[in-house]
User: Which sequence fits this backbone?
């Protein structure tokens, strides 16, 4: 060879395979959008939807055909409207009950002869009904006892307690899951379909290098993704990380690695893009719903909790919330880290064992 | 002569009902410095044989030795010294020619530098182009360059020019001939007889998982009945009176074959056979619709051996 020795990264197969993945990715604008742009759009949409709820309107119907007729109804209406949130509709009992049944009103009040002078028609299983009843009770009691003092209300609007604060770590976790599964699983099957895996196998390339390059490239994409999401949320929604940054970094790295391993496992036998897409959705959708992305997984019944607790996304989301919102550190990520490591190591080992190269 | 590839009694059976016997007992000997061609129709077992020799598929039984080593014991040693171009590989669309070759080069301990590989296949002007911007012929040359970048002693090519235009085929043949000229060994499969004649020192004709003939192209053509072929067609009103026996009785004619109104004769000396043939047709009261003479090809060898044409048999054999 007359040429000087090329730099190490040109001679190192792991570096070359990783570099190839990165170049292929950023040269495909559509892929860049779906990985980086889409989660941001989702965060904006959800954040805007849940950020500043207007003062709530509480619809209440008052029946005009009860005892005392329209005059009694008007009197009740006046008392109820001392609470500015309550919006009263006057109607006869049957249409009012229809409005209750279809969720257009939260409570139907029918004036009556007996004390206290009215009756409630209500479905207590619905949260908006309970709210309407509480508001109506309050307004009516207050007008009956004008001397009752109103306690001072302190609003909790500071960062950390809003819905966006709850939502953001969940989106981050869901994004790590989607990125790991799609980024590794989809690409692996694509390479298999193109017979590139078989072509690589026909060279002295080490299988380990290939699989590591898949994980490593995924890991590098994750860094950008996370910085982008954290920065964006900080700029737009004022969310901030209250806990230990290093612990957060470790947790995110473990999450990314774990989901990459699962992605590799899902893709390890699949021969077509259709198969892998189906498998991917079968794994991801249940976790989207059950692992506390949009609402806490504690809302699921008790018997489901042991299963939910060992799901990787549940562990990751709980860990992320503990560090980002509750200001926790290493102790809070110990359990999530254990769960994520177990998923990552087991799935990677299985994938390595059963991987189909052609 | 040193052997680059030795294959003994190779069998590959795919489990199915009934089992698919893709390769049914093949022996091959490829000498160092030789270009050896596996010629046969689609589905004959060429690719299966090649991929077993390449160490990509496991044989059901039989022995394979590549560069004096076997796959079970020295896979890494063999991989370093061979280059492979598969039948269909879609390389990464969004890498450039140079990046693709740099990556493949990194897999080998020793080899040529990517720029030289680009030069070998004359893709210098395309070095900075993405793979998805290359023509079919350029992609195929890049695939061969990926096989050459490890500076192999032995090159495997699976149908290297299938689907390419004539100019691209000639460019690729030049690449392979250059490689041969450096004393290296090539094993290729093809179903183009002209390609086999053009490139190969030796040819094995494969059909239904077996080698049905082997030798240099010239030997095979001679074995099949002569170097010259006379094709003629009789117009439909007088053909029936010319029999195969009449044709075989003509001087120097070795074989005769009929397809409808068309006949194909092989003859050692057409200048003697032709006047006798014209005479025969005249006496039989026939009329010639067409008459051509040409030198025999491997296609004729295949047709003589199997009664089928190489390319008509697409999909009809296992």
Assistant:
């Amino acid at each position: 060879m007359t040429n000087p020795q090329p730099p190490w990264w040109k001679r190192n197969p792991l570096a070359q395979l990783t570099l190839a993945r990165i170049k292929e990715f950023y040269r495909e604008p559509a892929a860049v959008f779906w990985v980086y742009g889409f989660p941001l759009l989702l965060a904006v949409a959800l954040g805007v939807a849940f950020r500043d709820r207007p003062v709530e309107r509480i619809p209440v119907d008052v029946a005009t055909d009860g005892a005392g007729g329209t005059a009694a109804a008007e009197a009740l209406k006046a008392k109820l409207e001392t609470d500015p949130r309550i919006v009263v509709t006057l109607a006869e009992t049957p249409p009012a009950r229809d409005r209750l049944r279809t969720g257009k009103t939260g409570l139907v009040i029918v004036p009556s002869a007996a004390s206290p002078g009215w009756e409630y028609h209500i479905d207590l299983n619905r949260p908006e009904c309970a709210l309407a009843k509480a508001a109506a009770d309050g307004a009516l009691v207050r007008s009956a006892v004008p001397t009752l003092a109103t306690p001072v209300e302190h609003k909790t609007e500071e960062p950390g307690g809003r819905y966006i604060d709850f939502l953001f770590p969940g989106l981050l976790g869901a994004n790590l899951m989607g990125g790991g599964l799609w980024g590794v699983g989809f690409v692996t099957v694509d390479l298999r379909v193109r017979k590139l895996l078989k072509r690589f196998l026909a060279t002295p390339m080490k299988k380990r290098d290939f699989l590591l390059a898949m994980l490593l490239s995924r890991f590098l994409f994750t860094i950008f993704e996370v910085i982008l999401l954290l920065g964006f949320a900080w700029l737009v929604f004022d969310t901030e990380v209250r806990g230990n940054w290093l612990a957060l970094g470790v947790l995110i790295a473990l999450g990314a690695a774990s989901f990459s391993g699962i992605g590799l496992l899902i893709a390890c036998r699949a021969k077509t893009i259709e198969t892998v897409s189906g498998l991917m959705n079968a794994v991801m959708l249940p976790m989207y719903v059950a692992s506390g992305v949009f609402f806490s997984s504690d809302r699921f019944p008790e018997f489901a909790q042991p299963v939910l607790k060992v799901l990787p996304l549940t562990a990751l989301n709980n860990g992320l919330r503990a560090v980002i919102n509750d200001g926790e550190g290493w102790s809070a990520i110990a359990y999530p880290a254990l769960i994520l490591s177990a998923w990552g190591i087991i799935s990677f080992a299985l994938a390595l064992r059963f991987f189909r190269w052609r | 002569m040193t052997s680059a590839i030795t294959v003994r009694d190779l069998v590959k059976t795919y489990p199915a009902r009934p089992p698919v016997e893709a390769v049914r007992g093949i022996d091959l000997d490829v000498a160092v410095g030789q270009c050896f061609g596996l010629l046969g129709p689609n589905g004959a077992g060429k690719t299966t044989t090649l991929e077993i020799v390449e160490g990509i598929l496991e044989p059901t039984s039989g022995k394979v030795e590549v560069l004096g080593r076997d796959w079970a014991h020295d896979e890494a040693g063999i991989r370093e010294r061979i280059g492979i171009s598969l039948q269909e590989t879609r390389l990464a669309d969004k890498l450039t020619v140079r990046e693709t070759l740099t990556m493949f080069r990194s897999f080998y301990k020793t080899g040529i530098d990517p720029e030289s590989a680009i030069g070998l296949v004359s893709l210098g002007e395309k070095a900075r182009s993405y793979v998805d911007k290359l023509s079919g012929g350029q992609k195929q040359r890049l695939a061969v360059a990926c096989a050459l970048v490890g500076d192999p002693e032995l090159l495997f090519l699976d149908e290297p020019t299938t689907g390419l235009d004539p100019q691209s085929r000639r460019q690729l043949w030049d690449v392979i001939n250059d490689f041969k000229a450096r004393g290296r060994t090539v094993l290729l499969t093809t179903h183009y007889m002209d390609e086999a004649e053009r490139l190969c020192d030796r040819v094995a004709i494969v059909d239904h998982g077996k080698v049905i003939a082997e030798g240099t192209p010239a030997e095979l053509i001679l074995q099949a009945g002569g170097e010259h072929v006379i094709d003629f067609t009789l117009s439909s009103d007088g053909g029936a009176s010319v029999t195969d026996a009449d044709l075989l009785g003509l001087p120097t004619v070795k074989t005769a074959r009929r397809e409808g109104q068309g006949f194909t004769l092989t003859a050692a000396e057409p200048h003697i056979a032709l006047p006798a043939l014209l005479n025969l047709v005249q006496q039989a009261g026939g009329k010639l619709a067409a008459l051509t003479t040409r030198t025999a090809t491997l296609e004729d060898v295949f047709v003589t051996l199997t009664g089928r044409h190489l390319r008509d048999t697409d999909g009809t054999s296992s």
Q: What stands out?
A: Chain A has 14 helices and four strands. Chain A touches chain B through 28 residues (CB under 8 Å). The first helix of chain A runs from residue 8 to 11. Strands of chain A lie at 58-63, 86-91, 108-111, 118-121.
